[in-house]
Design a protein that fits this description.
Largest sheet: none
Structural class: mainly alpha
Helix content: 55-70%
Order of helices and strands: HHHHHHHHHHHHHH
Shape: globular
Radius of gyration: 20 Å
Strand content: under 5%
Number of strands: 0
Oligomer: single chain
Length: about 350
């Protein structure tokens, strides 16, 4: 077999396998097993790339990320933290490297991959309505609201899925995406997720930053943002944005008591309200204390590079920033399938 056909076959194989683990990582059951399998899949993909090309390419700031990972591993070991966070960031880092080296095929199908993922989780959501499935809501991308948990991550997922859909509707003017847009709006409305609203807004503002105030687009964006504001207010009627997040302040104040960090996953040491901070930055600051500096430096360098670079995939950047915005008000960074979307977008950028 010639090298070129073999290379394409391998590219598509890992596109499919990675997409499969992305979906499985969002179901909410056997999460740790799929986390491990997703990690192994990325390692095998990189091994194949080395066999074919003799090397792998490293994206900017990757070695800084390795320093953060090593620090996280050592810190977690000595503080008795939960290794789940290390595995999440390790698998995410490997996925970032995998996608960066398979960028051509992942860039081509990125939007379609997300839309298919959204449809699959939507089908599971409707199936679960008539066939109750016992799932931990906060680690599933499709489980509906139950009991005191008035939040469903299906809205957070579809906030991300709506970004390429709106882009295709606006740029390609293809009416085939209108039903998908309506489905996305439905999932947003039933999710009660304010984080999803913020996430979608961030993605739209970045993606259409050059078009929002143009005369041809002003009216439609005005209608869109009016709807977003109405949804945000509607969700806020049942829970206020700040008062329902006392753990933000608890994480900051806890730093005075645990300057070296509580250990990742040990937030209950300083909070009686939640096991997680609902903010990725405060989660890492609380867990790693002063050692979180490596994450913040890496994050600053990545965001700076993403914002200032002119040679980028705008849809991927919009999704990267939108997911990051969701991480600031939610616990979706503990869901393998969702945090992998973030690293997948970073690899394409």
């Amino acid at each position: 077999m010639k090298v070129q056909p073999l290379t394409k076959t391998i590219d598509y194989f890992f596109l499919i396998s990675t997409s499969t683990f992305l979906a499985l990582g969002g179901i909410g059951v056997f999460s740790e097993a799929f986390l491990l399998l997703g990690t192994v899949n990325a390692i095998i993909a990189l091994g194949c790339k080395i066999l074919l090309n003799g090397k792998v390419e490293f994206p900017k700031n990757y070695f800084l990320y390795i320093i953060f990972l090593l620090t996280l591993l050592i810190h977690t070991y000595f503080t008795g933290g939960k290794f789940l966070f290390f595995w999440l960031f390790l698998s995410g880092g490997l996925l970032w490297l995998e996608v960066y080296n398979f960028k051509e095929v992942f860039s081509k199908y990125f939007s379609s991959l997300l839309i298919i993922l959204g449809i699959l989780m939507g089908i599971l959501y409707f199936y679960s309505l008539g066939n109750p499935i016992v799932l931990p809501n906060l680690v599933s991308l499709f489980a509906g609201t139950t009991g005191l948990i008035k939040h469903s991550n299906i809205g957070d997922l579809w906030a991300i899925v709506l970004i390429p859909i709106l882009y295709k509707l606006t740029k390609d003017k293809s009416k085939i995406y209108i039903p998908l847009m309506l489905v996305g709006i439905y999932f947003l409305s039933i999710s009660y997720s304010r984080a999803a609203i913020v996430s979608l807004s961030v993605g739209i503002v970045y993606l259409f930053k050059d078009d929002i105030f143009k005369k041809n687009y002003r009216k439609r964006f005005g209608i869109l943002f009016t709807g977003i504001i109405i949804l945000f207010i509607y969700f806020g009627l049942s829970k206020t944005t700040l008062l329902s997040r006392p753990y933000f302040l608890q994480a900051l104040l806890g730093l005075f008591q645990y300057l070296l960090g509580t250990g990742m996953g040990n937030f209950p040491l300083i909070s009686y309200d939640s096991n997680l901070v609902h903010n990725i930055f405060l989660e890492i600051l609380s867990g790693m204390g002063v050692f979180s500096i490596f994450f913040f430096v890496w994050m600053y360098r990545v965001i700076k590079n993403v914002i200032l670079s002119k040679q980028v995939n705008n849809v991927a950047v919009a999704i990267f920033l939108a997911v990051l915005a969701d991480f600031c008000f939610n616990t979706t960074y503990t869901i393998p399938g969702y945090i992998w979307i973030w690293f997948l977008a970073l690899g394409i950028i």
